[in-house]
Specification:
This protein is of the alpha/beta class. It has helices at about 15-25, 25-30, 60-70, 90-105, 150-155, 200-215, 240-255, 320-330, 350-360, 365-370; strands at about 50-55, 80, 90, 115-120, 125-130, 150, 170, 190-195, 220-225, 260-265, 275-285, 295-305, 335, 375, 380.
């Protein structure tokens, strides 16, 4: 279960929880006062994207080529790996069969042609299993059990980093809320990582096509934000309360942008079937691994549900996790965790949706600057080049 910061199993990660609490308490004060990025700071180009396909997984290579052709990504930017086709892999499998070939492919690149984004295709493993001690190791020598579980994509974001601890999360140096804080990672060692994946190849092709088609006219529809409580008056908020308030603020900012009609629900009950026609944007919580079919998604829709493990699988038959079901029902991009992330690991809705709606940044760039932690559980599913809105105030 997601917990308020002070209640997150403090015996397991006292330093991590304290760090997250300190950073997120000051987040709202730093949010718009410390934006060190100009609107042209990113401008992700197709030539800066490398695509990872698993040659052992059916349709992975074909889908990679399809995407690269549609987005004019050079064929030289294709990385072939040979890994398990299962969604979850061991740390050893990840290191040898995924991380190593990706690192080698990046090392062969001309330094003058910078790569800033990786795309994991359908067939690339989704999550890394926990690292366990050898079964025959003497009991007294067993290492302390670490939470080294992570999404494959979150670890791939650090493929240029020489060495870093695997126990828990690492603050993302690009995250706007951390701009006044020292972080272990350096920006030039962090890549954008997104995933073109889903329950079947047909859905992956649809995601690609929908993003490109939507860009031509812009994302149209309605925005739905599902808070649990009225907006509190307190300034120092944490955990659930912080994120619930951020959903309120996201609704306010999207409404103020004039992009679309906004519905904000602040009752404990979630949206119910039929409540959300023509949904283009969505954020809400908390229905654990149980998608509620309240939405009719327009082409190009973007949204995520704040709950644990909502991207634990994209393919398991019968699973009701939100990422899988939203993709099956027609959404174009979503975000979710492969394991328990704790609430502070999600992009704050206020920041993610407001930066996206400004229209200067692509989906991948928006995710990078609004994601608090790396080497952790989160996954972005969607075309990182997708830019659903044109700038409101072009330079």
């Amino acid at each position: 279960m997601l917990q308020i910061v002070e209640q997150i199993q403090p015996s397991r990660y006292p330093a991590m929880v304290k760090l997250a609490s300190q950073f997120l308490r000051i987040f709202l004060f730093l949010l718009f006062g410390s934006l060190c990025f100009t609107t042209n700071a990113f401008a992700l180009a197709p030539t800066e994207v490398m695509v990872i396909a698993n040659v052992r997984a059916s349709n992975s290579l074909a889908l990679a080529r399809y995407y690269m052709k549609k987005r004019d990504i050079p064929q030289a930017n294709l990385i072939r790996i040979s890994a398990t086709w299962e969604e979850h892999c061991s740390r050893q499998e990840f290191t040898q069969s995924i991380l190593k070939p990706v690192h080698e492919a990046l090392a062969r690149r001309d330094p003058q042609h910078r790569i800033r984004c990786l795309v994991s295709m359908y067939g690339v493993p989704l999550a890394i299993k926990p690292q366990l001690p050898p079964y025959n190791a003497p009991k007294a020598k067993h290492p302390k059990k670490m939470d080294s579980r992570a999404s494959v994509d979150s670890e791939l974001a650090l493929v240029l980093t020489q060495k870093y601890p695997l126990d828990g999360w690492l603050p993302n140096p690009y995250f706007l809320g951390f701009q006044q804080q020292k972080t272990l990672l350096k920006r030039d060692e962090v890549l954008i990582v997104s995933r073109l994946d889903g329950p079947d190849p047909r859905i992956v092709r649809r995601i690609i096509d929908d993003a490109i088609a939507t860009e031509k006219k812009g994302l149209k529809g309605k925005a739905y934000f599902d808070a649990r409580w009225p907006l509190p008056q307190e300034k120092k908020l944490e955990g659930y309360a912080l994120y619930d308030a951020s959903i309120h603020e996201a609704a306010k900012k999207i409404s103020a942008s004039g992009r679309m009609t906004v519905t904000l629900d602040q009752k404990p009950e979630l949206f119910q079937p039929g409540n959300c026609p023509k949904a283009a944007l969505y954020c809400g919580w908390y229905s654990l691994s149980h998608y509620i079919d309240a939405f009719t998604w327009v082409r190009g829709a973007i949204g995520y549900h704040i709950a644990s493990g909502e991207c634990a699988t994209l393919k398991r038959e019968g699973s009701q996790v939100w990422c899988k079901r939203m993709l099956e029902r027609g959404i174009t991009a979503t975000i979710g965790p492969v394991y328990e992330p704790y609430v502070q690991a999600f992009p704050l809705p206020e920041l993610f949706f407001s930066k996206l709606a400004e229209g200067y940044l692509s989906l991948g760039e928006t995710y990078l600057i609004t994601l608090p932690f790396l080497s952790w559980q989160m996954v972005l599913i969607g075309d990182p080049l997708y830019q659903p809105f044109q700038p409101l105030n072009p330079l």
